[in-house]
Amino acid sequence: MSRRRRTGLIGLFLLLCIAAWVEISWGPVSIPIRQIGSQTWAYLHGSRDADAVVMGAIRWPRLCAAILVGAGLAVSGCVLQAVFRNSMADPGIIGVSSGGALGAVLAISLGLGAVSPWLPPLCAFALGLAAVLAVYRLGSIGGRTAVHSLLLSGVAVSSLCSAIVTLLLSLVPFQTMAQMMFWLMGGLDGITWVHVAVAGSAVLVGLVVFIAMAPALDIISIGEEQAEGVGVHLERVRRVAMLVSALVVGACVSISGVIGFVGLIVPHLLRLWFGAAHRVLIPVCALGGAVLLTLSDVIARMALSPVELNIGIVTSCLGAPFFLYLLRRQYARGAWG
Amino acid sequence: MLEAAGVSFRGILHDVTQTWPAGRLVGLVGPNGAGKSTLLRVLAGIWSPTSGEVRVSGLSVHQLSPRQRARHVSYLPQQLPDDIPFTVREFVEMGRYAHRPRIGALSRADRAAVDQALSRLELADLAHNPIKYLSGGQRQRAAIARCLAQESGVLLLDEPISNLDLHYQWEILQIVRGLASEGRLVVMAIHHLELAAAFCDELVLLRNGRVYQAGKPQAVLTPEAVEAVFGLSVQVFPDPHTGHLRLSWPETVDGAGSHPPREVEEVVPACAKRS
Fold first, then answer.
1. Which end of chain B is least crowded, N or C, by CB within 10 Å?
2. Alpha carbons B167 and B140: distance in angstroms, whole number
3. A241 in a domain, yes or no?
4. Residue B102 φ then ψ, to 5°
5. What is the total count of domains within chain B?
6. Residue B204 pLDDT
7. Is B250 inside any structural domain?
């Protein structure tokens, strides 16, 4: 590993440690760093002391969810950018985010949220996957799937879902609307260990599959014709990449709502530093996504404390200007990293 | 050995039947849209023929999986994107996709094949340079190194010398010729008729998706065939220095570029007549 990569890796890891520490110990109840270990230990041994419960039942699951969702979104974005050979691709582009949001909003407006708190996330997951399958079907013409037809049907299905979401929002009472906004702008409040387990297994499966696919992704990222020439099964790689990303992002959306920009900006930024080889880029993206989402969650909780912001607002406010800066800098150099 | 038996493809190719043994350099020539690139893609097994069959060493190409196929046939598309974010070595390693273990790093045999391909094309010193900073000729050499690392008996190259200057065109064709002489079968699409005639053992002249003529360059590039396929009346003659087949073009507008300059010959007598 080159020195540059090692420095970057250590930097990201340190950032994650700092962000995790802030996330764990700051808040309405502040827990000094020295007590983190002992309070966690106490919670695990059944202590129902207030500090121990805040630690074990609120802060730790929230931190884990931030890490997992950030990793899942960033890794999926990285893979989709390679498969679509398009640096503008992000998990939203295959329709899974807007499909997921529609599922949750639909479930809430039908009153399913009152039946069981698990129904909205389940609907989010199901409709997220359904949207991806629709995009894939619509994008395949005559047995072949062309990248541009996939991208365009992704855009079309996404905007259809968004339109229905807006329609539903404008029909429901104000109270329900606030509940729905959680799904549209994302948030990590109310995360439990069950949520973490669900997202964790999906993200883990995704990471393993994606890292195994790394050589094929490298080749596809330089062109479909090149990939076919050296024996990559183009259709299969693309199908697996899309379905597994849909699974990962669907699981993330179902626990945290739609969180934009993470899947777009993290791979972009890290490719500049770590190069384009996916065997390195994918694990590094997982780390970088975790850092970005943990930091964003800290800001979402602290910025207007005691009011908590939606985390999607933070990632977009941080992400959009930074992304524009990168974009202009890259164009000024006349190269796409 | 590569065999096309009655290959047709979606109204672009019609009943192409050819057999090429190993150790040959075959040039596909013909005007734009004649089906050269399409034929290469069908031969490579990427597109399935609507009728007919392509066989490589007796195996039907279209019944093989992409990985199996790539061990027999390498295919190099015409255009390499110019923004490739990989080093020469990483790029050549991509040629090992069909051989490498499905999971994990390259095997020792993979690395040896890559080293060999790099040194064969004199790229060892450039191995760690990014592809996008190479010259056009070096980039094409890297692309051929990738095909070589694939260790297949058949190489299909789509216009390997387009976009190169004369020096690099010559260099690449010498390399390709060498690969054929070592016992591989190389089939390439090529626009430059004289270079094709100089380097190839065999030419296949395509017109509207059909084989118009095939065989030794001298037998294929006759004035009649060039006139019929390209719509240009040319003369064919052996190069006085090398004996390679050469073409003399039809006359230019105003006789521009001819020697001695046409103006002198014709304008002077006209003036003389008037006085």
1. C
2. 13
3. yes
4. -60, -35
5. 1
6. 93
7. no
CB contact under 8 A, B98 and A216: no
Give this complex's ipTM.
0.82
What residue numbers bound the domain in which A222 lies? 50-332
Strand stretches in B21-58, DSSP E: 25-29, 51-56
User: Stretch A3-12: mean pLDDT, rounded?
Assistant: 90
Q: What confidence tier does A324 reach under pLDDT thresholds 50, 70, 90?
A: confident
Which of B66, B77, B100 lies nearest to residue A226, judging by beta carbons? Answer: B77
Per-residue pLDDT of A89-101, as tens digits, reads 788 788 888 898 8
A102 within some domain:
yes
- For residue B7, give the 3-state DSSP assignment: strand
pLDDT of residue A334: 53
Interior angle at CA B181, CA B179 and CA B187, nearest 5: 60
CATH number at residue A257: 1.10.3470.10
Residues B196 and B203 sit within 8 Å (Cβ to Cβ):
yes
Residues of chain B positioned with their CB less than 8 A from the CB of A231: 66-71, 97-98, 150
| Chain B nearest C-alpha distance from A198 (Å) | 26
What does the block give as tokens for B16?
Answer: 């192409």
Q: Which pLDDT value is given to residue A146? A: 77
Chain B (102-141) residues lying within 8 Å, Cβ to Cβ, of chain A: 102-103, 132
Mean pLDDT (chain B) is 86
Give the DSSP H or E segment for B28.
strand B25-29
Q: Is the pLDDT of residue B249 over 90?
A: no
Determine whether the interchain pair B85/A231 forms a contact, defined as Cβ–Cβ distance below 8 Å. no
Query: Is the pLDDT at B272 greater than 50, yes or no?
Result: no
Which residue of B37, B69, B86, B156 to mutate against A (max A Cβ within 10 Å)?
A: B86
pLDDT digits (tens, 9 = 90+) for A296-321: 999 998 888 778 888 988 998 888 88
What's the CATH number where B82 sits? 3.40.50.300
Is residue A95 within 8 A of residue A154, CB to CB? The reply is: yes
- As a whole number of angstroms, the distance between CA A12 and CA A287 comes to 7
What is the token pair recorded at A205? 């499966």
Torsion angles phi and psi, residue A169, rounded to 5: -60, -40
End-to-end CA distance of chain B: 71
Q: Which residues of B touch A240 (CB under 8 A)?
A: none
> Could you tell me if residue B253 is inside a domain?
no
Domain count for chain A, please give it: 1
* H/E stretch holding B94: none
Tokens of A332: 């000024």
Find out whether the peptide bond into A28 is cis, omega within 30 degrees of 0. Answer: no
pLDDT attached to residue B127: 86
Please give the residue range of the domain that contains residue B30.
Answer: 2-233
pLDDT of res. A140:
80
Pairs of residues, one from chain A and one from chain B, whose beta carbons lie less than 8 Å apart: 71
CB atoms within 10 A of CB A93: 23
Q: What secondary structure letter does DSSP report for B49?
A: -
Are the beta carbons of A232 and B86 separated by less than 8 Å?
Answer: no
Reading the block at residue A100, the tokens are 């997921």
- The verdict on residue B167 lying in a domain is yes
Q: Is residue B36 part of a domain?
A: yes
For residue A9, being part of any structural domain is answered with no
Q: Which range scores top for mean pLDDT: A305-309, B19-23, B102-106? A: B19-23
